[in-house]
Amino acid sequence: MAQRAQALTPAPRRRKWEWPWWVSPAGTVTALGLFTIYSLWETLTHSSGQYHNYLSPFFSPDVRAIGIQFLPAIWVVWAPLLFRATCYYYRKAYYRSFFSDPLACARPERPGRAYTGETKLPFVLSNLHRFFFYVTVVVMAFLWYDAIRAFIFPNGFGVGVGSLLMLLNVILLSVYTFSCHAFRHLIGGGLDCFSCSRGPILRYSLWKTVSKWNQEHATWAWLSMFSVWATDLYIRLLISGVLHDVRLF
Ligand code: FES
Questions:
Q1: In angstroms, rounded to a whole number, what is the distance separating the alpha carbons of residues 50 and 150?
Q2: Do the Cβ atoms of 100 and 29 come closer than 8 Å?
Q3: Whole-model pTM?
């Protein structure tokens, strides 16, 4: 009888191999910590991010054109950085990883701590996310202008490694920015009828695209952060003479 019951019980499924639990929070702390330190070093110790037709994303738009010479980057990076700091995905990532309170949904709170969400300072400021979105869209327009300008060399059109990096960077930043939850609501929310006239029909098709991008928002968040980092580092190394730009044609 016991043998029969054993035969009827399905064999336990072998679990897929998984990373140890601490790899994800440790990776998040390392990557975000290093990026923050790098950003502070870049913005607080350099007065320019320009190398010929390349402009670092940390320094765009170039406020030196309107006479601001003192630490020009800090006049612009506050908006994209606050946009990231208040991003729904990053909030989850850094709150869990830096404060481990708790580390994941199914974990208990640490003794004596209670998650208060966005109801108290400083996290209540996360509610300003959509306003940082509006400012970041303006910055994006300048970044696209810079990316196009990166293909215009003194002797005409050309392609350098820097041009390609800047183009890739602005594409990744655009997908990250426009896969934002706040934008998804802006484009598709507040409508009673999607098919009543041409405006809502257009909004509905945009909303479907944004929704697809939104499903991978975390991926775009990481890829775009690394592309900003790589683009800035490449231009910084060109400025300091450590590297020479490679012209592909
Ligand atoms: S939710 Fe991540 S950028 Fe808006």
A1: 11
A2: no
A3: 0.89
Q: Which residues, including other chains, have CB under 8 Å from residue 203's CB and lie 6 or more apart?
A: 187, 188, 191, 194
With tokens 């998804």, the residue in question is 184
Other beta carbons within 10 Å of 191: 13
Relative to the CA of 83, which ligand 1 atom is closest?
3
Pick the residue whose CA is nearest to atom 4 on ligand 1. 180
Q: What is the pLDDT of residues 182-241, one digit of tens each?
A: 999 999 888 778 788 788 899 999 999 999 999 999 999 999 999 999 999 999 999 999
Map out the domains of the chain as residue ranges: 23-179+216-239
C-alpha separations of 192 from 201, 207, 223 in Å: 12, 14, 35
Q: How far apart are CA 149 and CA 55, in angstroms?
A: 9
Pocket test residue of 32, 82, 88 for ligand 1, highest count of atoms within 8 A of CB: 88
Cα separation, 249 vs 158, whole angstroms: 6
Rounded (10°) CA dihedral 51, 53, 59, 61: 160
Determine the distance from the C-alpha atom of residue 11 to the mean position of all C-alpha atoms in its chain, rounded to a whole number: 44
Measured in Å, residue 165 CA sits from the centre of ligand 1 at 23
Q: How many residues does the chain have?
A: 249
Q: 217 in ligand 1 pocket by Cβ < 6 Å?
A: yes
For 47, residues 6+ apart whose C-beta sits below 8 A from its C-beta are 69, 70, 71, 72
How far is it, in rounded angstroms, from Cα 209 to Cα 203? 10
